[in-house]
Amino acid sequence: QLSPFFYATTCPQLPFLVLNVVAQALETDDRAAAKLIRLHFHDCFVNGCDGSILLVDVPGVIDSELNGPPNEGIQGMDIVDNIKATVESACPGVVSCADILAISSQISVFLSGGPIWVVPMGRKDSRIANRTGTSNLPGPSETLVGLKRKFRDQGLDSTDLVALSGAHTFGKSRCMFFSDRLDNFNQTGRPDPTLDPIYREQLRTVCATQQTQQPRANFDPVTPTRFDKAYYNNLVSLRGLLQSDQELFSTPRADTTAIVRNFAANERAFFKQFVKSMIKMGNLKPPPGIASEVRLDCKRVNPVRAYDVM
Ligand code: HEM
Ligand SMILES: [Ca+2]
Ligand SMILES: [Ca+2]
């Protein structure tokens, strides 16, 4: 049972510590906030919110979730390490890495102009990873049916799906995750018909002009670093970046279309639902009966001490 007061006596300054480090990270990396909330999402969808995504590979011991295809190239671990180091020096051994991901997400949203909310705390960190479980994560070319099923499997409904996808109001995606929409979409020889042609050509330019191996485009071409409702207005004007984004609005007769329209018209409604859905996602529990701890280094399980084994 999580509680907003979980660290009230053991680490009362926690929110300020996290705020400081995230604000500092944002000064040099305008995607820092986006990276942190995505890590929390990818944590919670695999074995619940237990910090499992942060464990690095240890052959024969930890089969890292980072080796699961949906986590390939995921970023922000360095920021988590910085937050953890600051928190450990102020409140040694008390704050779990899973809770650090949860509160960092809230502070990231707040620092980007989004809502404030009180995050229920008290998660524990796993001593295992579940690489095969990363197949629970949705993919960029997923249709609405698949997206809904993956969210339903986590106890999240269509409203949660639409609200949480609103996190694509900031951050970037590598071009490889949407380039199929630009030309020969689904082997039709045509671009995705639910992609605005002007936006499509802008994306083509963005992806072609970057001199890096992994060109990226902003999820939200209007306010790329602000947490606002622009994502939904983009969907209504056929400017969703991923197929999975546009599906929410453009799938014929879908219940999600009206939800997108509502959030596009009413930022307060979006913020209110986003908070509810984030708390719901943040409540996803690990499978019962497995060992947990407060990890000292988010990347590794704690060393087993002799008296633990006896
Ligand atoms: C609904 C299904 C979703 C799909 C298919 C999806 C897929 C993706 C993909 C393909 C990327 C680009 C990754 C890369 O280039 O490395 C991405 C980035 C991102 N996702 Fe999602 N995502 C979904 C839902 C969510 C949710 C629920 C959240 C958070 C609540 C979220 C937050 C983000 C953020 C903030 C980024 C940008 C990260 C950055 O700039 O590094 N996504 N997502
Ligand atoms: Ca997890
Ligand atoms: Ca935005």
TrEMBL record:
A Pfam family: peroxidase
Catalytic reactions on record: 2 a phenolic donor + H2O2 = 2 a phenolic radical donor + 2 H2O
Active site, UniProt feature: 42
Binding site for heme b: 168
Co-factor binding comment: Binds 1 heme b (iron(II)-protoporphyrin IX) group per subunit.
Positions contributing to Ca(2+) 1 binding: 43, 46, 48, 50, 52, 65
Compartment(s) where it occurs, according to its Swiss-Prot or TrEMBL record: Secreted
Protein task: Removal of H(2)O(2), oxidation of toxic reductants, biosynthesis and degradation of lignin, suberization, auxin catabolism, response to environmental stresses such as wounding, pathogen attack and oxidative stress. These functions might be dependent on each isozyme/isoform in each plant tissue.
The protein's name in its UniProt record: Peroxidase
Species name: Cucumis melo (Muskmelon)
